[in-house]
Give the backbone structure.
Amino acid sequence: MCSWYYLRMRHRAWSARVALVNWLGASLARNRAYSRLSTIRLGRGTSRWLAHFALVPLVIYCASCEHCPAKVTVDISVAEGIEIPARRDALCIVSTAEIYEGDVNGRTPQGLPIGQGGEIDSRGTCIGIDNNTRAAQWADGVSAGDPIWYYAYIDSIHDRRLNEGEAFGIYDNNPIDVECGEQRVAIVISDTFSGQ
């Protein structure tokens, strides 16, 4: 059965294709040379109709381009002995995607991805974590085909950056090659960041 998320993304993709075809058809109809060739004295609006007709192959091609929704569920656990601040945003999860070549320029000795500027990308989503269970879960809606590095850290200083001395953990099999559907990633926060 199709999920609501899948159906919503399919609807958005189809709406974008229809809008593209309408725009191209109107643009072609406004072109004088094209209008002379397509109208053939068949009445008002014919040029636009023929412009749409000429784009039928494009519509058929676009309809075959299925949207591929993907979701990565990240399960995070914090090792015993690591202090968790009593805040709603103490746990930060970072996903660094290599959409274009060079988005990730290597790794630090501790396995963290290095971004374009030569620094660790520590901008992420910060959520709360239960001190009793010491576990949390986060869902990342992504595009299939892009390799993504995942890691998480305890934001002790409360500045949404991974600082020296803060506890962190990485996904052991980074990067993950995102595929259609849902994938799961497990991260254990047990290491201490020693700086880049």
